[in-house]
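We emphasize that the prediction below concerns an isolated chain of 99 residues; any contacts that depend on oligomerization or on bound cofactors are therefore not represented. The input was used exactly as deposited, without trimming of termini.
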Amino acid sequence: MDTGFGGMPDVGWLMQGLPGARIVARSNSREMQARLCALGTGLAVLPKPLGAVTPGLVEVNIGSEPPSRETWLGYHRDMKRLPRLRALVDLIVESAAMR
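Result of the prediction step, given as a token string:
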């Protein structure tokens, strides 16, 4: 994570769980963090879907669960009753609940 994101809950959680770790790279791009980890550069807190599709990554348990995140989905109120939108929202909610 770059210094602009140092106050995010997952950064504090990672630093608390691994107090002796040193920072070797910073990026606010989760994809770049995943690539660096796959190359053996270090550890990062990544979304599970990204970790699942990035070859070379291994999930590591540091003794506690990472902080959760809220996800917001916005759409125009005129589209609220559109069946295609409702189907998409249901799919996203179901998919997120499985993670």
